Amino acid sequence: MPNPRHALPVTFLTALIGGVVFKLLHIPVPWLLGPMLAVLAGSSVRKNLFRWPGPIRNAGMIVVGYTIGLSMTSAALHEMVRQLPTMLLMTVLLLLFCAFMAFIVTRLSGNPYLTMLMGSIPGGLTQVITLAEETEGVNLTVVTVMQVVRLMMIVICVPVLVFSPLLGLPQHGGSAPEISHPGVTLGSGDIARLALFAGVCVVCAIVGNRIRFPTAYLLGPAIGTAVLQAVGFQGPPLPSIAINAAQFMIGTYVGLLLKPGELPRKLRLLTLALMSGLLLVLGALGLSLLLTRLEPVSMSTALLSLAPGGMDQMGVMAHEVNADLSMVAGYQLFRTFFIFFAVPPLFKLAIRLIRRK
């Protein structure tokens, strides 16, 4: 049965209500989670009333990719190069810990290991959901539930740990500039530069999609933005309304992809998701202790560098406690790109092995 003509406006208004409610309730990433859950609830009642074209979601992905590319400043890149062996070690250890947790959750829940592994990957919510959508044999609904619960655990537990006297706030932070610009406004010169970056981002996204680049609409713009900055162009930071709009576009699309009827053993899965999220926080804390032994950094800087949350949230907290922003951004960026470049080929290998068995 085809969608009615008013499906798109209904979807937009439903998602908007969800975002506003989540914003008023001060729930983390409200313009991603609010539209996602509102559209999910609405489409569960009247499926044919809701529609959200893929190109709208792709536009949101391009905006997010641009913001990731902006974070690749010279300070962050310098920190990534200087600490490359340590970053690789910490990232691999964290992923191995997540793979072990996924194995345990698989045994307890009965879900496929590939789905549990994707649900346990410590990447950004938007990026991991996109990667899950593009990976064959993965239950997107289960992955989304696991990732949302993990995000909530990170948002709750990491600030408590960072701002507690247990870690000891550092007396001297890094000299890197702030990586978030919540109240930025664009001037005429900024608009001209933004047009240049927008063109490059769109071209990189389209080319990346044509050559089957993993999460092309995200990584293509990120790489294009980073290259432009490396050759001397400075991309203007986006106002918060643009970031919120991008999350709105993506969250609404993901909400229509979710199918609660395909969620097996709901109560058990939610319980295991909470446990795995808490274990992931404890694992990051343990790795942070190791990092402080390998590098002359504070415990707060180490935890924010390794915490499996979004780089924007970790950057804000790093600024608040006067931690080393360039190191936090460098580690978070390295893990993000490592997951996007290394995980898809590993997943394809895992799928082949599972099918052979």
From TrEMBL:
PANTHER family: REGULATOR ABRB-RELATED
One Pfam family of this chain: AbrB
UniProt xrefs under InterPro entries: AbrB_dup, AbrB_fam
NCBIfam families: Gneg_AbrB_dup
Transmembrane parts of this sequence: 7-25, 61-81, 87-108, 151-171, 191-209, 216-235, 241-258, 270-291, 333-351
Organism expressing this protein natively: Cohnella candidum
Organism ancestry: Bacteria, Bacillati, Bacillota, Bacilli, Bacillales
Keywords carried by this UniProt record: Membrane, Transmembrane, Transmembrane helix
GO biological-process terms attached to the record: regulation of gene expression
GO cellular component labels: membrane
Protein name: AbrB family transcriptional regulator
